[in-house]
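User: Can you recover a sequence for this backbone? Please restate the input before giving your answer.

Assistant: Of course. Working from this structure:
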């Protein structure tokens, strides 16, 4: 069986555990294929934690859930030096961040010191503690959940940290038919009808091999230019349409272009193609840009949101016709 087929088998398994949320499952696999971190936003009870844990089990990856709270300390996440009472020597005890897939639950409840330590881990795949830098696992991946900012006790994440997330996914409630299926599966689970042990479908080694395949996907010059034009449009909206002048305080950096290129390459690979199309770019642009746009006071007063701005940009930038 090819690695692509194994990823499809993994997705089918995820669908047996998670009802609906197909876009979430696709984009979690994209993150796995690129090593890009994911920010999941939505109300409680939408199986975010279950989806991430099931993904980790499916690739035989080490997994750890970290509950972020206002009293969390950097050492609770990264690890710290501990005194050995017998020898009097200090030894470093690794924290939960030293796993291949880390679920950062309610990440926007953590204090700034923890966010700063997490930023190094996400950006450099390393942790500095006790004056020594230690590498994280090669497949290291953060999937974070964020409560809607309207909830009490939440704080906006720093711009630098938001920029380290490849994708920002906004989840919604299931349809009534999907919720009915959730009820039925829950009953089956409690009656022991689906408790067979899950064998991993992939291994971290195979995931890393697939990442190399994705990096070799063909992306035409016209697609590359299209990606750059879409991202650059966030920095010069007023030049494209005078009515949009001043609605954004900050546009997206070149890191967004890189993230979009990697994301669309992985998506095309998952579809069984060795080339990227403009539709791939349009499909993934909102998830890549959503968290990178800062709307001005004027923009908020005019009822602009990141998603409506992104749709406007898609309308303004001509779609390339060919793939040459």
């Amino acid at each position: 069986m090819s690695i692509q087929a194994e990823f499809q088998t993994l997705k089918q398994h995820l669908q047996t555990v998670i009802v609906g949320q197909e876009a979430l499952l696709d984009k979690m696999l994209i993150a796995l294929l690129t090593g890009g971190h994911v920010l999941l936003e939505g109300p409680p009870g939408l199986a975010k934690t279950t989806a991430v844990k099931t993904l980790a089990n499916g690739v035989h990856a080490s997994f750890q859930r970290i509950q972020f709270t206002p009293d969390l300390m950097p050492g609770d996440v990264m690890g710290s030096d501990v005194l050995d009472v017998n020898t009097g020597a200090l030894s470093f005890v690794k924290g939960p961040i030293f796993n291949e897939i880390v679920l950062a639950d309610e990440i926007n409840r953590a204090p700034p010191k923890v966010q700063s330590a997490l930023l190094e881990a996400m950006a450099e795949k390393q942790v500095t503690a006790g004056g020594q830098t230690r590498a994280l696992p090669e497949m290291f991946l953060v999937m974070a959940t964020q409560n809607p900012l309207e909830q009490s006790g939440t704080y906006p994440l720093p711009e630098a940290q938001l920029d380290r997330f490849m994708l920002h996914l906004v989840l919604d409630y299931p349809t009534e038919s999907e919720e009915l299926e959730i009820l039925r599966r829950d009953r089956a689970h409690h009656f022991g009808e689906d408790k067979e042990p899950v064998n991993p479908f992939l291994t971290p080694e195979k995931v890393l091999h697939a990442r190399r395949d994705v990096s070799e996907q063909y992306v035409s010059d016209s697609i590359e230019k299209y990606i750059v034009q879409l991202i650059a449009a966030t920095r010069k909206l007023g030049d494209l349409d005078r009515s949009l002048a001043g609605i954004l305080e900050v546009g997206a950096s070149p890191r967004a272009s890189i993230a979009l290129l990697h994301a669309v390459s992985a998506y095309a690979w998952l579809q069984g193609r060795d080339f990227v199309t403009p539709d791939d770019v349009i499909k993934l642009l909102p998830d890549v840009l959503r968290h990178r746009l800062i709307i001005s006071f004027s923009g908020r007063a005019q009822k602009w949101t990141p998603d409506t701005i992104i749709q406007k940009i898609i309308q303004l930038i001509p779609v390339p016709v060919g793939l040459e």
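That completes the design. The domain at 217-316 is CATH 1.10.8.80 (Helicase, Ruva Protein; domain 3).
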